[in-house]
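ok posting inputs for the S-adenosyl-L-homocysteine job
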Amino acid sequence: METAGLDSDGREFKNSQEMWREQVGDQQKKTVWYTEGVGYWEGVEASVDGVLGGYAHVSEPDVKDSEVFLNTLLSDLFADRRNGKLVALDCGAGIGRVTRNLLIRYFNEVDLLEPVAHFLDTARENMAPENLPVDNTHKAVNFYCVPLQDFTPDAGRYDVIWIQWCIGHLSDDDFISFFKRAKGGLKPGGLFILKENIAKAGFVLDKEDRSITRSDSYFKELFNRCGLHVYKIKDQKGFPKELFAVKMYALTLDLPRRAPSSRPKRQSNRPGIIR
Ligand code: SAH
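and the output
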């Protein structure tokens, strides 16, 4: 990304390459980046307030807007799958907040990926059948205690791969290789839903939890490099003003489908009728 960025102390970087070179430029730096990223979350309480950085009250508007977005996508893309088994993956799932409040109601099976063991343990408890607001045709199945940069999903398992508030922990290179590998985990016609904080321009590096907040154009450049198409975008509404803006992206492997035109194409060798 060619635009300048900042770190949490207000220091300026000329561009993202300069920042990444400094943060993950060799194997040792990279190890420190990822160890300290997970290390930050290891010190956080396994609660909704913990995973939302003290903003437990945004969970409700978050889930509400996610549900509207998901519903549009399900009726646009999966109308013909309603009677089949729908499967989702919740990435950087934390204590399973997104799965519990949203995914488990729409998907028959949900897998959770979360590198922080005490979060995943809490997620496992929260997802026990007796603690879920659904019947036994909907369940959490696999719990993977690995970070995204080390994960490869089972081939063709998922209708939706949901990635919320965790991709900022990945360097650009790992972001791209994650999505390239994860494409193989989607069923034909499946999609990624990415919900993230958005910087006004360039990027903002958070030195405390080792993550970066990217701008909308930064994300779009990366999607391009992953060979992904932006099918739909929506802004989260109703969050406190002091927080970053949040966007939801629906990403597909194929070009967005267009509704077939109702007008037949005019053939060039036939004279047009002038009325
Ligand atoms: N998506 C959840 C949790 C958000 S908190 C929710 O919306 O409720 C951010 C989560 O990202 C934490 O659970 C943290 O452990 C996880 N995380 C940190 N580094 C990660 C990495 N490299 N890969 C995947 N998840 C990571």
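notes: The longest strand covers residues 186-198. The mean pLDDT is 93.
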